[in-house]
Amino acid sequence: MSAGGPPTLEALVDRLGQLPGIGRRSAERLAFWLLRASSDDALGLAEAIRAVKEDLVSCRVCGHLGESDLCAICSDPRRDAGVILVVEEIKDLVRFESAGLHQGVYHVLGGAMDPLSGVGPEHLGVDGLIRRCRDAACNLREEPVREVVLGLNPTLDGDTTALHLANQIEPFDIRVTRLARGLPSGGTLEQASVSVLADAMDDRRPLGGETP
Q1: Superfamily the domain 7-55 falls into
Q2: pTM score
Q3: Which residues of the chain, if any, have pLDDT below 50?
């Protein structure tokens, strides 16, 4: 489709082209698929997008998404609130949940520290995690935190963030562990298979390499 197409269609293509991994030609294919789709399918997609933006909110405790101030995980009384798995992004939480590897709760940082880009702990959900560790009243069901599992990506930024968190949590007499290095250095959790994630969780160890 040339730039001389109908303005409405061009606007749709431009919007679709802003999606990650979608170039101009892919955006055009998606736009024409929407044109051929039934009104129910096309408008259903539009409604789903609207609902994601308007109905989902961040959990006030862990930073995950939900439809109330507590996400479904934090609201589940069967979850062990004393064990917090810290992840960089919501997609990492979803990865662990889909594999059924963690029966505790989570804390989403919203990224990793990147000093070269000016991203420090103040730009992440670090303060909320420290409050949960320091004061049981700030944690779910006012349960004291016994263990913090650092489920961060095995990258330079992930390691920098992990060391910072371990130093911040150290005064609270809480066990701090990290995922086993079965995960490839420089990779991401999103790329890891379920079996690799399971091994990493089962073989997690205290940060610093000391014997548990």
Answers
A1: RecR Domain 1 (1.10.8.420)
A2: 0.76
A3: 209, 211-212
